[in-house]
Amino acid sequence: MQVIYSGKDNGLKKAAAFVNELITDGDLWDRIIAHGKFDRALIDPNTIVDRLKAGPTELHVQDLKAPRWKRWTIYRRTVAVVDPTHPARFSYHRKFRRNSVGQKVNTILHEYVHIVDNSDADEGEQMGHGDNSSVGKENTAPYWIGSEAQRIYETKSGEMAAAPPAGEM
Ligand SMILES: [Zn+2]
User: Fold this and answer.
1) Ligand 1 centroid – CA 34 distance (Å)
2) What is the pTM of this model?
3) Which residue of 42, 43, 97, 128 is most buried, as measured by CB atoms within 10 A?
C-alpha cells in the first residue's frame, strides 16, 4: 500500500511519506503480532497483518471538501471521513490541520485499518471499534495500530510525544 496525498497540508504530506516508509520496513507488522490480542477483533494478529499487507495498493488521502455548514455540524468532531463510493480513500478535516505529524500518522493508519476491514468480502467488522466514541477503545486494532505508528514516528523524529488525535476517527 502506498499513501497518496495531493492536498496542501504539509504535516499530512510528511505523515504520508513516513507511513510509506513504515509499512515497507516491517517493524509495525512485528509489533502488531507481538502485541497479541485486540479488543473486539474477530481475527488474530497474524491475520490482521496479512490483511493489512494485502490491502489496496493505493490509499488516497484528500482535504475534506464539504460545505462549510456540514464541516461545522455533522463533521465538527470528525478528523477523517471515509467515502463508501471510493473504498480506498478518506478525507481529512482541515479543522484538525494543527494536529502534529505524529497524530496525522496515527489517523492514516487508523483509517487504513478501517478501509482494509471494509474491503474484505466478509460481513461486518473483523477488526473495528464499533461506534464512534473513542472511550475505552485503546486496545482495538484501529486505535492501537494508529497509536503505535504515532509512537514510532515520535521516537524516530524526536517530535514531542502527543496524545492521540482529538476527535472521532
Ligand atoms: Zn475509527
Assistant:
1) 22
2) 0.95
3) 128
